Amino acid sequence: MPLALLALAVVAFGIGTTEFATMGLLPQIADGVGVSVPQAGNLVSAYALGVVVGAPVLTGIGARVPHKRLLLLLSGLFVIGNAASALAPNFGLLFAARFLSGLPHGALFGVVAVVASRLVAPDRAARAVSKMFLGLTVANIVGVPASTALGQQLGWRSAYWTVAVIGLIALVALALFVPHQPRGQLSGIRHELRAMGNRQVAIGLATAVVGFGGFFAVYSYLVPMLTHLTGISDTSTTLVLALYGVGMTGGTLLAGPLTDRALRPTLYGGLALLAAALVTFYFTVHSTVPALITITVIGAMGSLITTPVQMLLMAKAKNAPTMAAASNHSAFNLANAGGAWLGGLVISAGWGWASPNLVGAALAVAGLGLAFTGGLMDRGGPRSETITKSVGPAEASPTGEGAEHQRT
């Protein structure tokens, strides 16, 4: 089980590295393919678009494929997309390659989350999922800064080749260490889509889009905030981003046991504390030490929300959690786009570089309101279940013999 979770974490590490590495190499990429830096920034949007499209589509296509085989196929597509990015001779083909790289992102995370939850006892499912998410947070500490430095020294293509190699390592680890998990009778695209029709799933996804929009409203403009307001040099911002990743890792470590103990209170507390930290950063951004402390807390609170949202969606989708778990990452990317747009809007309006913090706090509070709405709806209905062990025919009944459940 620890080796299987490590293999899943390597997948998350590769995804996290490729998702954010492009941002740090935009000038080099722009020079390499002969476009402006703003035009090169569209490559980030291409990847995000691939995530939004690929999560439901690829999960639906693979709805009857056993989870381990689906993981291997999606990881192979991830390797191909990043290798194509490294080989792209011009901007148009690089744009297409980044879209291709993003396609397996959400589906991979969705399947990985379900597989991780089924490797352990039901009362430890959130801890297993949070350990998988550690790969994503470690990518922000090690993978993104390392790939950025490598791309700056050896050329931007080397960063994508590195990610492709990470993908190959993950592919081998998945093949060796992740056990086979049969789908059972209740599988297929119709069953997954029917589970997505649950109102609680819709509210959970809306919570992710709005609440995480607050996180990304600030993260998107963190570097200019640090250079313009805090007085940190351009060369030091990479270290600060690594500190942000340290906070994210701490939040992820807390999220697992807290979510296993009390899912909704962990979600409520994470959103409330995120809003408070963003308001605090509005005032501390002008002083180096308080700013760095607040940045670490923001990173922690952002990650503290990730696991309970993921587990909540898997619970509300009942016996078909894969598409809900995958769609969560489409929601994260919509939050990224929406939060960045709103943060840029207030900066352009002349409210100052610190203003995205207030926008982010407002979005976090709105996400908290949506989460509370879902909680109130739960009080009037039956408790939802997610199967955390692969089972056979008994899957046809949520309370059938042989099924093990986690209740929220």
Short description:
The protein has helices at 2-24, 26-33, 37-40, 42-61, 67-87, 91-117, 125-154, 156-177, 189-196, 199-219, 222-230, 237-261, 263-284, 288-316, 321-348, 356-379; strands at residues 385-387, 405-407. By secondary structure, it is mainly alpha-helical.
How much of the polypeptide forms β-strand, as a percent range?
Answer: under 5%
Tally of extended strands?
A: 2
Using only C-alpha atoms, the radius of gyration works out to 20 Å
Return the string of H and E elements.
HHHHHHHHHHHHHHHHEE
N-to-C terminal Cα separation, in Å? 24 Å
SSE-based structural type: mainly alpha
- Main beta sheet, described? 2 strands, antiparallel
CATH architecture descriptor name of the largest domain: Up-down Bundle
Any overview of this molecule?
The chain crosses the membrane at residues 44-63, 70-97, 103-121, 133-152, 158-180, 201-223, 235-255, 267-285, 291-313, 334-353, 359-377. It is a multi-pass membrane protein. It holds the Pfam family MFS_1. The protein has 408 residues and is mainly alpha-helical. The protein has helices at 2-24, 26-33, 37-40, 42-61, 67-87, 91-117, 125-154, 156-177, 189-196, 199-219, 222-230, 237-261, 263-284, 288-316, 321-348, 356-379; strands at residues 385-387, 405-407. It is built from 16 helices and 2 strands. A two-stranded antiparallel ribbon has the order 1-2. Helix 5 runs antiparallel to helix 8, helix 7 packs across helix 14 (288-316) and helix 10 packs antiparallel against helix 14. Mean pLDDT is 83; it is low at 382-408.
